[in-house]
Amino acid sequence: MKYENLRQHILTTSRCNPGGRVDYHLSNLAAQFGLPRLHVEQILIDMKDERLINVSFDNGFGVVTLTARGGMLLELLPKKPIGFNQGLRA
């Protein structure tokens, strides 16, 4: 579950960022998702191999850009409500 949550986070964050580029501090991502840093790096490499993202590594950062294929996958993921409308009733 942690792995899938991380993958979804990377896709959604990249999509929301102008130009689709995000610089992730790998240690911060690891701490946020409760995973070893090397596992985070491997997930990024796996996502690159699946052609969902482009990634390069530099001084503890993973520089990620979303690919067209990653954008298409993101469209298929279930949508979650955003915080400000969760408590409203019709």
Summarize the structure in words.
The chain has helices at residues 2-16, 26-33, 37-49, 68-76; strands spanning 21-25, 53-58, 61-66. It is an alpha+beta fold. The protein starts with a helix and ends in a 14-residue tail after the last helix. A three-stranded antiparallel beta sheet has the order 1-3-2. It has a single domain (2-77), classed as Orthogonal Bundle (Arc Repressor Mutant, subunit A). The mean pLDDT is 82. It is globular, with a radius of gyration of 14 Å. Strand 2 (53-58) and strand 3 (61-66) form a beta hairpin. The chain has four helices and three strands. The longest helix is centred in the N-terminal third of the chain and has 15 residues, at 2-16.
Summarize the structure.
By secondary structure, this protein is an alpha+beta fold.
Defining key terms:
90 residues, 19% strand, 50% helix, Arc Repressor Mutant, subunit A, three-stranded antiparallel sheet, alpha+beta, single chain
Radius of gyration from the CA trace? 14 Å
Our count of helices gives 4
Large-scale geometry: globular
Q: pLDDT under 50 segments (min length 5)?
A: none
User: Separation of termini?
Assistant: 32 Å
Number of strand segments:
3
Topology of helices and strands:
Layout: H1 2-16, E1 21-25, H2 26-33, H3 37-49, E2 53-58, E3 61-66, H4 68-76
Antiparallel strand pairs: 1-3, 2-3
